[in-house]
C-alpha cells in the first residue's frame, strides 16, 4: 500500500458526535494482478448493511432508516471521533469512473476489452471496500462493466445497485405475469394482469420506468401498472410517467381506506406487487391489495426481517412472498445499453460535490432531495 486517497466516511454518530460525515486520507491497495484500480468520478448515495445479504437498496428508498442515525446530529457537539466508525451504512457501491491502472498479469487475451482510461462502472461484489473514496480496487475484471461516452457519469453511477435490483424485480414479475396470463388464456383471454409498484424512492422510480419499457417492448399490452406513492413529491414524480396510474398512500388515512382506494385505482385486486417499502405496514397493506394466488416481490435485504412475520398470512391468503436479489453483471451491461440509448429514462437526480457530503446526508435524512443524490469526486467531462 504505497498510495493515499481521500475517502468520505459516513459514520453512525456517538453520544458526543456533532457530525457523521468526515474526510480521511486512507491507504489504497496496489492494483491486483488480475484486477484494476478505478478512479471514481461519481458515486450514488446508496445503503447496505454488511451483515445482510447481497441485495442493495438505494438511499432514497430507506431515508426512514437513515433518520434513525441522524436525528441528533444538530443537537450534540462533542468531538466526532467519539462516534462509531461505520462505513457500511454508505459503502459507495454505486460508482462510475475511469480505469486508472490494470494488473500486471492483464494481457490482450484476458483484458475483456478494457483499457486504461476507459469509462466504467463496477458491479457490486462482496468484498467491495466500504466508504466513498477517490480510488476503488477491483480484484477481478469480471466486476468491471464498460460504459459508452454518451452515458453521463452521474447517470451511470445510479445503475449498479438500485436500477439493477429494480430490473431484476421486473424480470421476475414478467415471469409471474406470463404464467398468470397463460392460465387465463382459455377462460379469460381479455383480462389484464395488474401490477402494483410500491414506493417512489429511487428503486420504485427505476422499476416503473423499466417495467413500462420492458412490457411494451415485449408486446405485453395486457398489463396495467400502478404506482403506490408514499410521499407527496413522489406522487408528482410518478404522475409524469406515461401509461402508469398513481395512487397516494397517505399515512393519515385508515388502512381500510387506503386498501379500498388502491383497489379502486387498480380496478380491483392486483396480481403482482413489487414492494420496495421497508416496513411491515407496507407489506401488510400490499397483501390486502393482492388477489388470491398473487405474488409479492420484496428486496431480499428486508426479507430476512419480514418473511417470518408474514408466513402465516401469506399461507392464509394463498399468496407468495418472493425475495429478489441484486441482478447479474450481464443484466447490468444490458441496462447500460438501454439507458445509454435512451430507451429507459433515469429518474430525477441531483449531483453534489463530495465536499458537500454532510449537507447531502442531512437533506436525505429530511427527505429533501427528490429522486437520487450523487456525489462527484472528479470532473472529467
TrEMBL record:
It is an enzyme of class 1 (oxidoreductase). SUPFAM superfamilies: GroES-like (SSF50129), NAD(P)-binding Rossmann-fold domains (SSF51735). It holds the Pfam family ADH_zinc_N_2. InterPro entries: ER, GroES-like_sf, NAD(P)-bd_dom_sf, Zn_alcohol_dh. Keywords: Metal-binding, Oxidoreductase, Zinc. It comes from the Eukaryota. Its EC number is 1.-.-.-. One of its GO terms (molecular function) is oxidoreductase activity. Residues 16-375 form the Enoyl reductase (ER) domain. This is Uncharacterized protein, isoform B. It comes from Drosophila ananassae.
Amino acid at each position: 500500500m504505497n498510495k493515499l486517497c481521500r475517502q468520505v466516511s459516513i459514520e453512525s454518530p456517538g453520544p458526543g458526535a456533532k457530525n457523521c460525515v468526515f474526510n480521511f486520507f486512507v491507504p489504497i491497495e496496489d492494483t491486483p494482478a488480475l484486477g484494476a484500480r478505478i478512479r471514481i468520478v461519481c458515486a450514488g448515495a446508496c445503503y447496505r448493511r454488511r451483515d445482510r445479504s447481497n441485495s442493495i437498496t438505494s438511499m432514497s428508498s430507506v431515508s426512514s432508516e437513515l433518520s434513525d442515525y441522524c436525528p441528533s446530529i444538530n443537537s450534540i457537539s462533542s468531538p466526532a471521533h467519539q462516534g462509531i466508525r461505520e462505513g457500511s451504512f454508505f459503502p459507495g457501491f454505486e460508482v462510475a469512473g475511469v480505469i486508472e491502472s490494470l494488473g500486471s498479469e492483464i494481457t490482450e487475451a484476458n483484458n475483456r476489452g478494457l483499457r486504461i482510461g476507459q469509462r466504467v462502472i463496477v458491479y457490486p461484489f462482496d468484498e467491495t471496500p466500504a466508504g466513498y473514496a477517490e480510488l476503488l480496487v477491483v480484484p477481478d475484471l469480471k466486476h468491471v462493466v464498460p460504459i459508452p461516452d454518451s452515458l453521463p457519469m452521474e447517470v451511470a453511477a445510479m445503475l449498479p445497485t438500485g436500477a439493477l435490483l429494480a430490473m431484476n424485480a421486473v424480470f421476475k414479475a414478467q415471469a409471474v405475469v406470463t404464467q398468470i396470463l397463460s392460465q387465463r388464456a382459455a377462460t379469460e383471454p381479455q383480462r389484464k394482469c395488474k401490477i402494483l409498484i410500491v414506493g417512489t424512492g429511487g428503486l420504485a422510480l427505476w422499476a416503473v420506468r423499466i417495467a413500462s419499457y420492458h412490457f411494451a417492448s415485449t408486446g405485453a399490452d395486457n398489463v396495467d401498472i400502478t404506482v403506490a406513492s408514499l410521499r407527496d413529491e413522489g406522487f408528482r414524480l410518478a404522475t409524469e410517467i406515461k401509461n402508469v396510474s398513481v395512487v397516494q398512500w397517505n399515512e393519515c388515512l385508515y388502512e381500510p381506506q387506503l386498501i379500498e382506494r388502491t383497489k379502486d385505482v387498480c380496478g380491483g385486486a392486483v396480481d403482482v406487487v413489487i414492494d420496495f417499502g421497508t416496513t411491515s405496514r407496507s407489506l401488510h397493506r400490499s397483501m390486502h391489495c393482492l388477489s388470491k394466488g398473487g405474488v409479492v416481490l420484496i428486496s431480499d435485504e428486508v426479507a430476512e426481517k419480514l418473511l417470518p412475520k408474514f408466513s402465516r398470512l401469506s399461507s392464509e391468503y394463498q399468496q407468495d412472498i418472493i425475495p429478489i436479489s441484486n441482478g447479474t453483471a450481464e443484466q447490468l451491461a444490458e441496462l447500460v445499453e438501454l439507458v445509454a440509448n435512451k430507451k429507459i429514462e433515469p429518474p430525477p437526480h441531483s449531483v453534489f460535490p463530495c465536499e458537500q457530503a454532510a449537507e447531502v446526508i442531512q437533506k436525505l435524512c429530511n427527505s429533501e432531495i427528490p429522486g437520487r443524490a450523487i456525489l462527484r469526486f472528479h470532473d472529467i467531462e
